[in-house]
Amino acid sequence: MTAALSEGVQTSPAFTPRVFSGIQPSGGLTLGNYLGAMKRFVEMQGQGFETLYCMVDMHAITVWQDPEALRRQTRELAAGFIAAGIDPEQSILFNQSQVPEHAQLAWIFNCVARMGWMQRMTQWKDKAGKNQQNASLGLFAYPALMAADILVYHATHVPVGEDQKQHLELTRDIAIKFNHDFETEFFPLTEPVIEGAATRVMSLRDGSKKMSKSDPSDASRINMTDDADAIAQKIRKAKTDPDALPSEAKGLEGRPEARNLVNIYAALAEQTVDAVLRDVGGKAFSEFKPMLSDLAVARLSPISGEMARLMQQPDEIDAILRKGSERARTIAAPILKQTYEIVGMVS
Ligand code: TYM
Prior knowledge:
With 347 residues, the protein is mainly α. It folds into 2 domains: 3-199 and 310-343, HUPs (Rossmann fold, 3-Layer(aba) Sandwich), CATH 3.40.50; 218-301, Tyrosyl-Transfer RNA Synthetase, CATH 1.10.240. The protein has helices at 2-6, 31-44, 57-60, 67-84, 101-110, 115-119, 122-128, 137-151, 165-181, 228-237, 256-269, 273-280, 285-311, 314-343; strands at residues 18-23, 50-55, 92-95, 157-159, 191-193. The protein is globular, with a radius of gyration of 21 Å. The chain starts with a helix and ends with a helix. 41% of the residues are buried.
């Protein structure tokens, strides 16, 4: 579906360079979220793009969320964004539910997207599991809301980890079908930005599984709120193989756990995998792991310290999100209005 529909279509240069991305406040932030998404969001600030970053609370409730936990996690995620370097003056930082245009455009997209497209989404299949009949309708429609998040701002670039690639292809398919059905070029064909050494950070316990906030084993992930001891202990216990580290990236083939730790190191050190391996090639894991935990602690502890400080001021966080959502609405409202006009709604 996606390849055939997307072929030969270029993003029009007519759109303002604008970055949008979102993170679900459905649990604590992990090192995967940080390296695969947030760190890259920070790097895209001030690079000639308008930048919008969103706590997608409406996506989070597609599976059950305890209301108090959702509130706390939304604030904690906002604190994480700011502590990691997102400047709420420079970027627009907000939570999804305060900008009703997301849900309004999502309804239009529910009527554009086809059931078959949704059924092919691997995240739907994974999350709904064997009991699809019991999954929420929101979980099924999730990718149409995600397309609305992006397209309600006419965003041109979306930095994400690799696991979101299929959803971004669907976003392009929705834009293409809308533009085709209504004979317009109203929505841009958004570019996914999936770059760097850490677009897919894996579990520390199993190199074939993604590091995830929903993994039942806490030892499988590094949480952004973990202290230095917890980080060091998790890295010490991380699964590895018995061989020494190779001197070139080719030597990581068939060694998913080794590859994962080297990728994490490279992303934290802001070096290429080849440059890291030139330094550490030949070392045993007993030597490499302490290097990795020192680096992780040096990079993450200022962020977790700042998060903890910001969490003492929830009113300030709420004020930042309110202001961000007002700014977001100034972009989203006219785009939604034009969409309604294109669709034929009387206003
Ligand atoms: P979410 O909340 O699962 O993850 C947020 C971001 O973190 C990335 N990520 C990872 N990257 C590398 N390694 C990992 N182990 C890892 N785990 C998570 C994700 O790829 C993502 O970029 N559907 C999205 C949220 C969303 C969104 C959007 C994103 C809603 N609307 C619009 C972009 C644009 C999600 O569930 O991400």
